[in-house]
């Protein structure tokens, strides 16, 4: 369980308004103390948990803002980016085509090697005749 100053530190960190130095001054500890707290697993877990809660509180508003951009933006590029972002976050990300490209590249290389081999064989056959 975090102590009072550690909790104050977390709240100030989550506000995003203060530097570590400013936080240290506000709660009456050194910057090194905060650095040491940040290295402790319990402090990190509490910070991450609080950060997730904060993000979840704003998620609906963020989605609404994105949806409003999609509906009302003057720029088609802005609308497109809003649509892509909404779809990505909903799990409709574009398929990863790297493996298809790699397979095509490998097939092309194999066919090129095969054809080069055939050309050599044909040339040797013509030379021997």
Secondary structure elements and pairings:
Blueprint: H1 4-15, H2 20-27, H3 31-38, H4 41-72, H5 76-89, H6 98-128
Explain this structure to me?
The protein is mainly α. It has a domain of 33 residues. Helix content is 81%, strand content 0%. The longest helix is centred in the middle third of the chain and has 32 residues. The radius of gyration is 29 Å and the shape is elongated. The mean pLDDT is 86. InterPro entries: Homeodomain-like_sf, Homeodomain_phBC6A51-type. This is Helix-turn-helix domain-containing protein.
Residue stretches low in confidence (pLDDT < 50, at least 5 long) are: none
| Percent range of helical residues | over 70%
Radius of gyration: 29 Å
What is the terminal-to-terminal distance?
90 Å
Quaternary state of the chains: single chain
List the total number of helices: 6
Mass-distribution shape: elongated
Query: What proportion of the residues form beta strands (DSSP E)?
Result: under 5%
Instruction: Please give the number of β-strands.
Output: 0
What profile does the largest beta sheet have? none
What series of H and E elements makes up the topology?
HHHHHH
Q: Round the mean pLDDT to the nearest integer and report it.
A: 86
**What structural class do the secondary elements suggest?**
mainly alpha
Features:
single chain; 129 residues; mainly alpha
Give a short synopsis of this structure.
It contains six helices and no strands. With 129 residues, the protein is mainly α. It has a domain of 33 residues.
């Amino acid at each position: 369980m975090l102590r009072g100053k550690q909790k104050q530190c977390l709240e100030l960190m989550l506000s995003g308004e203060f530097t570590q130095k400013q936080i240290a001054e506000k709660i009456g500890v050194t910057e090194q103390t905060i650095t040491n707290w940040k290295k402790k697993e319990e402090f990190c877990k509490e910070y991450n948990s609080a950060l997730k809660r904060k993000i979840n509180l704003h998620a609906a508003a963020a989605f609404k803002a994105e949806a409003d951009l999609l509906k009302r933006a003057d720029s088609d590029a802005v609308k497109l980016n809003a649509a892509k972002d909404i779809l990505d976050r909903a799990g409709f990300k574009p398929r990863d085509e790297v493996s298809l490209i790699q397979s095509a590249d490998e097939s092309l290389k194999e066919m090129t090697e095969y054809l080069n081999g055939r050309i050599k064989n044909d040339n040797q056959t013509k030379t021997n005749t």
